[in-house]
Amino acid sequence: MARVHRVLVGEPDPPVVPGRMWSLGLYKSVVLVLFLVRQNPVQEVAAESFGVSQATVSRRWNTLLPVVEKLLAGHVPDPAEASASRIVLIDGTLVTTWDWASEGTRIFSGKHRDTGFNLQIAATLAGDLLAVSEPVPGSRHDTFA
After folding, report:
1. 65-83 pLDDT per residue, tens
2. Is residue 99 within 8 Å of 116, Cβ to Cβ?
3. How much is the pTM?
4. For 28-37, which contacts have Cβ atoms below 8 Å and span 24 or more sequence positions?
5. Which runs of E-coded beta strand occur in 15-113?
6. What percent of the residues of the chain are helix, what percent strand, and what percent coil, each to the nearest 5?
7. φ/ψ of residue 96, rounded to 5
8. Is the pLDDT of residue 17 over 70?
């Protein structure tokens, strides 16, 4: 929380002033963003859980997610170092999306018969997440991704 506060206060043109987050305050706003990242609920569900409007959830998400990403970027381990002398499992998964007509068949996975993006995930046998790849269109095979 202190780091988020320092980033917001230290910016010459902060996206939000920490003392002016009326409905939730800075602490609960960051918790809300982390809840959205971790659980991936629709914003209406998060709004109901936190006792605020969906518009408030959307504003907090748009404002604080870049700050949280910036702060956590330095704590992401290098996959090569994290996997040294460990057995690593790598598998792909389709992250489904709604049907984007503008993308044509580019994101349609024939194997899953659904639209989405392919992600490759590396984890240890104990289930510790080591890395997640950049998304590639769902029409591409795991070996390409």
Report:
1. 998 888 888 777 777 777 7
2. no
3. 0.60
4. 29/60, 29/64, 30/1, 30/4, 30/64, 30/68, 32/57, 32/60, 32/61, 33/60, 33/61, 33/64, 33/65, 33/68, 34/68, 36/61, 37/65, 37/68
5. 88-96, 108-109
6. 45, 20, 35
7. -70, 150
8. no
